[in-house]
Amino acid sequence: MATIKDIAEKAGVSSATVSRVLNYDATLSVADETKKRIFEAAEELSYRKRSSKRYVDQKVAVVHWYTEKEELNDLYYLSIRLGIEQRCKEIGMNPEIYFFDNIKDIKATEIEGIIAVGKFSDDQVKELAKINPVVVFVDYSPNEDKYDAIVIDFEKATRKVIDFFVSTKHEKIGFIGGKEYLKGRTEPIQDIREKTFKSYMQELGLYEECFVYVRAFSVEDGYNLMQQAIKDLGEDLPTAFFTSSDVMAIGCLRALHEAEISIPERVSIIGINDMSVSKYMYPSLSTIKVYTEIMGETAVDTLLERLEGRKIAKKVFIATKLIVRQSVKK
What we know:
By secondary structure, the chain is α/β, with parallel strands linked by helices. It has helices at residues 4-11, 15-22, 32-46, 68-73, 75-91, 122-131, 154-167, 192-203, 219-233, 246-258, 292-307; strands spanning 59-64, 94-99, 114-117, 135-138, 148-152, 173-179, 212-216, 240-243, 268-273, 286-290, 315-318, 320-323. Strand 3, helix 6 and strand 4 (135-138) form a beta-alpha-beta unit. Helix 9 crosses helix 10 (246-258). The mean pLDDT is 90.
């Protein structure tokens, strides 16, 4: 495992700065560019190496639905993008990175296809397909009969978390989640994690509406929602929380620390993603590992299949794994 010192050397900053950035220290004033270097260094040092195979010196447009600023608040998408870039590097392909607000800069005649990372509206999907009909979507499947997609089974992942909590004798289980919106829409995208949490907990006879808190996917929203739960519920605070992203879980940990609520003795926490910084938290964060590197690599390989002649669209589900660390009772 890469150490704080390894990350600091690669990013060109001090170990103290790395530690504070990885823990989302709210009192630290540091440029976004420095944060980006640290996060990318942490992700890259966690990658496994694999041998290069073939390919040609061609270009692919990697289109991100977030802005660069938003990407720093949700490392899930940053790590997918880095997986794409790593695989392209291995096969000699040149990835050109775009955020959706600058796709007009894509030179359609110079790219072989598009890898679209994130969630896109119908109009945005059409806009991408006009640039190049070979589009692979990552973390979203707008039309599985037409476009290739690389996705995660979040329903199964959510059930894994609940099953673990139940097996470790928790009955009061809370949920802290986020909402996402397609461009131009006021209604949020249905979050499978939240939907599955509610339905499965109802099935088990354990669901309590007052234990569910939802806002947006960020450290600060995780922090604010946990603060609200502590204020609202008092002694009735659940003994376990499932948070729908690691970044939200980090905010939850901070709120619990400030309230002097012990983790995991009083409250256990599980997130989703297993982003590289999760193991550096205090206590280290238990999480559902989403193989974002594999998602990115698979997107590139799926694009190559299209370029080599495959006509039928396919939807690929990448497996997840529960990683148990110090933030839960075992």
